[in-house]
Structure formats: C-alpha cells, structure tokens
Task: inverse folding
C-alpha cells in the first residue's frame, strides 16, 4: 500500500468525481466525509455524499488523509535566518518565465 510522503503512514489513493486524486485513510471511519468504492476496473473512487445522493450500500466513509496527516508542516512557516555572508536570491529570480 502506498504511504504518505510527509508522515509515512499508509494511504488509499482515490479518484474523485472531478477526476482529481484524493488520499484517504485506508480504514473506514463513520466520521469521514468521503464515500469510497471500487469501480468495475478495480479503481478506488470517492465522492462527497449529499442529501440528493446519500451513502450507498457499496460505499464506505473514509477520512481524507489531509485531515489526519501527522507530518504536515504549517503552510506559512517563517524560515530560519540565513547565516552571515549568505544572500537570499529568491527576490531577484525571474517569476512567471521559463529559464533560458
């Protein structure tokens, strides 16, 4: 089973109704919000249950792994100060263009 790149715990990769990939925890959880099932080709599919399309008998609720990942770092972490004599060149790099 594949593992998360951040926390190294096992994940189950699914394809959403929009065609995107979504990692969910492999064990079903009644508190989850992703309905997961396997299609005829064996691919794991996921969707968000709603009032119009409630949970079907062949689906199980899973929790998206993003909500339980132990190794994720906050998105806005302030970097450590650079050592003396080192210059940060990120402000001088060209943005939005390919490198020549």
Result:
């Amino acid at each position: 089973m594949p593992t998360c790149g951040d926390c190294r715990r096992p994940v189950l990769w699914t394809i959403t109704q929009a065609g995107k990939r979504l990692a969910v925890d492999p064990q079903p959880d009644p508190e989850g919000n992703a309905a997961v099932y396997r299609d005829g080709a064996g691919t794991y599919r996921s969707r968000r249950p709603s009032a119009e399309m409630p949970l079907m008998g062949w689906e199980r609720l899973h929790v998206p792994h993003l909500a339980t990942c132990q190794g994720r770092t906050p998105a806005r972490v302030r970097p450590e100060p650079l050592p003396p004599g080192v210059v940060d060149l990120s402000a001088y790099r060209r943005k939005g263009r390919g490198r020549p």
User: Anything to note?
Assistant: The radius of gyration is 20 Å.
